[in-house]
Amino acid sequence: MALSPGMAASALMLILPTLASAQTAPPPANPTRPILFTNFRLFDGKATTLRDGLFLLVDGNRIRTLTQSKPAVPDGTQVIDCGGRVVMPGLIDMHWHTIIAALPLPVVLSADIAYVHLAASAEAERTLMRGFTTVRDAGGPAFALKQAIDEGLISGPRIYPSGAMITTTGGHGDFRSLTDLPRSGARISSSEQTGGSIVADSADEVRLRVREQFLQGASQIKLVGSGGVSTPRSPLDMLTFTEPQLRAAVETAADWGTYVMVHAYVSHAVQRAIATGAQCIEHAHLMDDATASLMAKNGTWLSIQPFVSEEDTVSPVHAIRIRASWG
After folding, report:
1. 6 vs 11, which has greater pLDDT?
2. Assigned domain for 29 exists
3. What is the chain's Cα-based Rg?
4. Does residue 327 lie in a domain region?
5. Does 213 lie in the same domain as 98?
6. How far apart are CA 260 and CA 279, in angstroms?
7. With bands split at pLDDT 50, 70 and 90, how would you rate the model's confidence at 312?
8. Are residues 108 and 133 in the same domain?
9. Are residues 177 and 76 part of one domain?
């Protein structure tokens, strides 16, 4: 039977969505059997001693039963004898950079972004196997990796992404070279293109950048409130955003039902962030006692990280190359 042009167009409209769906739909996650863990000692994060003689039933990513007597389990349940090893809840890393955890920063800023994401994927699985089942990403293009983990394409921890770290011109995280200036009319930097960090210099720009991160799926927002150690022209004691600019981010995040965390090292940067309603301060290694008391009074969270030496941040492969280059 011959089809009229209208009928053919209608048929094509029905077929194309089906083909598109078949091509883009992620493969179904592999079904997992419930697991019963036996013969282990439990560290629950609260008690000062380990508990034994327990049975732990896990179904998918949920703990179903923790009991002293062997529970009834579904048919097909896998039983794992832990051999007296310690079982504990998954760890949560509150300040993690998914994309830059696997590689030195100069490599991240200069390499093909596809290579960077592949390295981040491998590091995500290593992170999970180290016991971290959840990470809060404190800045960077982690959305694709989060999606791949959530869909079961790769193994890794749950990711709460912040999206691009929002900074000011010349602030920590402004990785532009001097040849990228002036900003007006110039192309955006590679870091901005890939979503590592992004510059905002007014309250309206801050609102725009915050909303862009939420559009991509950010769980919370990361702003830079002071200088940092990885950007050469941002001394630690500098201030970046003004109070109205910080407040614009806090208010916009509140409109989305979430919060802002602020990178800040020195007391006056921490105090400015607290005054604008930021709910979490990152680092704060150089704040004084009065500022710490102010944080406690306002119920502001502190996410503090230990410093590591420069060589600790370099992968073994790159460390060998560096030693070979420098002799």
Report:
1. 6
2. no
3. 24
4. no
5. yes
6. 6
7. low
8. yes
9. no
Mean pLDDT of 67-88: 95
What crossing angle do the helices spanning 143-150 and 113-129 adopt, rounded to 10°? Answer: 50
User: Would you place residue 220 in the very low, low, confident or very high pLDDT band (cuts 50, 70, 90)?
Assistant: very high
The answer to whether 172 and 140 have CB atoms below 8 angstroms apart is no
Question: Which CATH number fits the domain that encloses residue 84?
Answer: 2.30.40.10
User: How many structural domains compose the chain?
Assistant: 2
Are residues 145 and 61 part of one domain? no
Report the predicted TM-score, pTM, of the whole model to 2 decimal places: 0.81
Q: Is residue 17 included in any domain, yes or no?
A: no
Paired tokens of 266: 């020195």
Q: Which residues pair with 81 in a beta bridge?
A: 38
Checking if the pLDDT of 41 tops 70, the result is yes
Whether residue 226 lies inside any domain: the answer is: yes
Could you tell me the residue range of the domain that residue 52 belongs to?
35-89
